[in-house]
Amino acid sequence: MRLAAESRLYAVAVGVLGLALATGATFAPSAVAAPHARAAGAAVCAYASGTPSPGQATNAPCVEPAGEAGKWKLRKDTSVDYAAEVADLEAHAGAGDTPQAPAPSWSGILGTGSQYRLPYTSPCRSASASLTSQGFCFSATDQSASTGPLTWNGEGVELRPQGQTTSADAAGLDGADDMYWGRQIVATGWSAYKGANGSGGSGDPAYNQISALTFAEWQGTRSDSEDPRYRKVVLTENTATGGASQLTDPVLHLGGIAWYGHYLYATDVHTGSSLHGVTVFDLDHIVYIGANSRLVAAAHGAHYVMPVVARWISTGTGSYYVPGGSMSLDRGPTGPSLLIGAGSARPATEVMRFALHTADSAAGPTLVTDSGGTASAVAAYQLNNPVNDQGTPEVPSGVVSNNGVFYYHIENAHGTSSRLDAWNSTTGAHCSVTKWPKASEGLSFWHAADGDHLFGATANAGTRTAYDAQLTTVFPGGC
């Protein structure tokens, strides 16, 4: 299936992955649970002394009170001249530190040196993915639990899929609503989990030290018979100017990403006194460094990089900082916005909404701010406190919303399956399905001519996939 170019996306995308080749796989109707309303309308969250009451959101999602959302704030970082850093890198990215050549294009990015996708079949596609109709498996190299195509400190490093977004989010600025530069593209965030000899996780020296995006074609558009490809583009920052470009790693987990216009927004990590909330990259500044061996080495072997073009720093007081878990783009009726999950802040089930300018406005596709340059959340919500099959609370790693309905998944405690929940913030209806792909990460939303779709990705070694599920099959009666 190819999503029609004339389709309109007026909804969401969040932290995680995906997409791909049609396989003809069928859905499993038996896995669908009928929607059931838990309240006549959405509840307003109760608070004690300005703090969410413990257990308030347990199995009862709610809308936060008026005035609460505005306590979450982001301010654009003006202490660094990011434009000068990017310009310097582009002026010295070629062989012998000459200007970059050629300029980035999908034919180059997805051409020689890129990786082939694999069919969306077993064993890569797990039995728990019965609600997904199509997708693809990442390459055999990217399925490895110990090494991948990139290196860190001279050794192989395992990267895991995290957030996900698509060209449909980007608004197709070249005239087609679901395309960017003439192609339907899926972007997936990856972060380093462990070095070849490491133990993995936050205690591993390589953890989060490399962050990258894979850009993959949803459907092949070339005239040859090759399967569509994808490539990892390493995220970086040029911290030296004056002709001596020096690439450093921004240290991002990429739990959430959202592609809006030419900007790629990514949730940051909370490390020490660094309270970065959102880091921004630019599709117009993908830089080819393949002919510059010094820069290739600094970029862990990658031939394409995307440098930081902006940062939005969390300035909320107390616990109201925005470290970011998931992220998505919502094109709801009130206008475009970023939906950001609180991650480890306050109750981790909170999500907040920051308004965006329309992509074609004079301000461009960026956050709406006050006269002082501060962006404040315009709404906030608590999802139900998700509990897995063992009664253990789980943090949703992927959250999207469309027209007031939130979709988020909860992992089985043993990692054998996931559950997808939906909550209608207008009616209070709360729905759930099982048999969702295990180890799911970010989610994104694509409104196509044939209906609404959720795209996602799975992170476990050996079963790393990007998948698509049509909402009319997942929730036949809506929610």
What keywords describe this structure?
479 residues; mainly beta; nine-stranded mixed β-sheet; six-stranded mixed β-sheet; 4 helices; 5% helix; 35% strand; disordered N terminus
What's the structural blueprint in terms of helices and strands?
Blueprint: E1 21-22, E2 36-37, E3 43-44, E4 47-48, E5 51-52, E6 62-63, E7 73-76, H1 82-91, H2 106-109, E8 115-116, E9 134-137, E10 151-152, E11 155-166, E12 185-195, E13 211-217, E14 229-238, E15 247-248, E16 257-260, E17 263-267, E18 276-282, E19 287-288, H3 293-298, E20 304-307, E21 310-314, E22 327-332, E23 335-341, E24 350-355, E25 374-376, E26 379-382, E27 399-402, E28 405-411, E29 418-424, E30 429-436, E31 440-448, E32 451-458, E33 465-470, H4 471-474
Question: How would you describe this protein?
Answer:
By secondary structure, the chain is mostly beta strands. The protein has one domain (21-474). 5% of the residues lie in helices and 35% in strands. The protein contains 4 helices and 33 strands. The protein has helices spanning 82-91, 106-109, 293-298, 471-474, and strands at residues 21-22, 36-37, 43-44, 47-48, 51-52, 62-63, 73-76, 115-116, 134-137, 151-152, 155-166, 185-195, 211-217, 229-238, 247-248, 257-260, 263-267, 276-282, 287-288, 304-307, 310-314, 327-332, 335-341, 350-355, 374-376, 379-382, 399-402, 405-411, 418-424, 429-436, 440-448, 451-458, 465-470. The strands form 6 sheets. Strands 8, 10, 11, 12, 13, 14, 15, 19 and 20 form a 9-stranded mixed sheet that branches. Residues 1-40, 53-58 and 220-226 have low confidence and may be disordered.
